Cytochrome oxidase 2
Amino acid sequence: SAIDNNSNVESSSEAGNPDDKKGPKSIAEIRDILSKSQDRKISYSQKGLQKEIIETFADLLKTVDKTEVNNLLTLLNKSFSSIVIEEIEKNENVKEQINCIKEDLSNVEEDEEIQRINFDSYLIADEDLVIPEALGTGKGG
């Protein structure tokens, strides 16, 4: 219908590529779009990785139709929420472990004498130190 065609035109112009055809893209078009993302240089800093994620998703969105875009955005939203929750839980776990270590350290009594190891008792006296002499200078067979 005219409304569907109009929405396809709008979605392709929203993607920033007026050459987009109506309807699903061919495999060759998808490969072309995704191959361009492989040629990008990645900066492995926080901002660089954020930029790479956004550009990759932008390229991915160019390869799907409007229904798939909505499904993909919903999936990404749930994924990011899950990732954030997981990171928060990991940070909380680390904080708990740090607090446990601090508590254990504070429970050690300062007056408690620490047993020192006398390393001198492990030294070998010079008279006990024997260096074996070679028994012979025969040739090995």
Observations:
- Residues 1-64 form one domain.
